[in-house]
């Protein structure tokens, strides 16, 4: 057995000031075992709230990490730090709530236009296409959350659900719906009548491009899922369709799908949401791309960009 001294980085309300805390663990113990010991001592300090780090460092240690691998052979015992991350909520729940917003908001604007615009709206084919695209997109996202995605982190701080959901509920929900279902885009509008936006061939071509982007996005998610066995945090280098050019083709294909909607409609609401979403995905892609290269080194394909082929 080895003595491990655990100190608190900051105040830990769940533990009521019981740190530093010393406990005996087996030499082959992992970080997850330490979390379990802390939880046994302080029942309100759940493992999902704990961030374990080496003393003086900020990078969290994953639960599978063996203490001997990061702390070496015990001399006078080991030292670790713990930080209380606060109340947590599962990433899966967060995703489900995020995507539920547009699924509830768009039907309200589409089926009850008189409530929002003070008049009935005879929907154009364009509006019907956009409504179908949005409902299919977010239904797909909900199903992927339940059946496809495997999360490297189980939880996140619960208050972040408000920030994360506002992006979808307000921008792709209220803003987009209020704009594209208004009378300007209706079947009787001069913005639609006699223009390319009422042309069946144009609408079908756009629908085909949108479907291509959505199915490609799904394919990349399935590729990533296959790299991580259930219940593990294992990471591998993805290859194949889309990944030969960029590290995160899922972001590229999603941006392409929303760009199609922007071209179809000329909607300011669609443009705002697409620009904001693409910007955020670019930030994520660049950060994760750097992490890939750092983790896999020379093994990682040198020619790949982060998100947009040959550009970014």
UniProtKB/TrEMBL annotation:
The keyword Aminoacyl-tRNA synthetase does not apply. It is found in: Membrane. Residues 155-312 form the 3-oxo-5-alpha-steroid 4-dehydrogenase C-terminal domain. It comes from the Eukaryota. The chain crosses the membrane at residues 256-286. GO terms for molecular function: oxidoreductase activity, acting on the CH-CH group of donors. Gene3D superfamilies: 1.20.120.1630, Phosphatidylinositol 3-kinase Catalytic Subunit, Chain A, domain 1. PROSITE patterns: S5A_REDUCTASE. It is a multi-pass membrane protein. GO terms for cellular component: membrane. GO terms for biological process: very long-chain fatty acid biosynthetic process. Keywords: Lipid biosynthesis, Lipid metabolism, Membrane, Oxidoreductase, Transmembrane, Transmembrane helix. Belongs to the steroid 5-alpha reductase family. This is 3-oxo-5-alpha-steroid 4-dehydrogenase C-terminal domain-containing protein. It comes from Hypholoma sublateritium (strain FD-334 SS-4).
């Amino acid at each position: 057995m080895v003595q491990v001294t655990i100190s608190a980085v900051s105040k830990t309300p769940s533990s009521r000031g019981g740190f530093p805390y010393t406990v005996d663990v087996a030499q082959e113990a992992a970080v997850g075992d330490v979390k379990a010991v802390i939880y046994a001592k302080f029942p309100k300090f759940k493992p999902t709230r704990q961030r374990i780090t080496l003393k003086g460092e900020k990078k969290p240690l994953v639960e599978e990490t063996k203490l001997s691998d990061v702390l070496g052979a015990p001399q006078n015992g080991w030292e670790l730090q713990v930080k209380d991350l606060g109340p947590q909520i599962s990433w899966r729940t967060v995703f489900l709530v995020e995507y539920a917003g547009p699924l509830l908001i768009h039907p309200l604007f589409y089926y009850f236009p008189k409530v929002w615009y003070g008049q009935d709206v005879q929907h154009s084919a364009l509006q019907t296409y956009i409504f179908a695209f949005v409902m299919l997109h977010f239904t797909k996202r909900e199903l992927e959350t339940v059946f496809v995605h495997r999360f490297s982190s189980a939880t996140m701080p619960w208050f972040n659900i408000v920030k994360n959901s506002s992006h979808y509920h307000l921008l792709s929900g209220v803003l987009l719906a209020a704009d594209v279902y208004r009378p300007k885009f209706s079947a009787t509008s001069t913005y639609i009548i006699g223009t390319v936006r009422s042309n069946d061939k144009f609408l079908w071509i756009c629908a085909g491009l949108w479907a291509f982007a959505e199915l490609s996005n799904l394919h990349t998610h399935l590729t990533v899922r296959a790299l991580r066995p259930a219940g593990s945090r294992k990471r591998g280098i993805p290859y194949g369709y889309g990944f030969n050019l960029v590290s995160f083709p899922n972001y590229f294909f999603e941006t392409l799908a929303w760009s199609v909607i922007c071209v179809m409609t000329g909607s300011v609401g669609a443009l705002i949401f697409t620009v904001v979403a693409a910007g955020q995905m670019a930030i994520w892609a660049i950060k994760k791309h750097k992490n890939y290269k750092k983790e896999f080194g020379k093994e990682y394909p040198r020619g790949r960009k982060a998100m947009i082929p040959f550009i970014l």
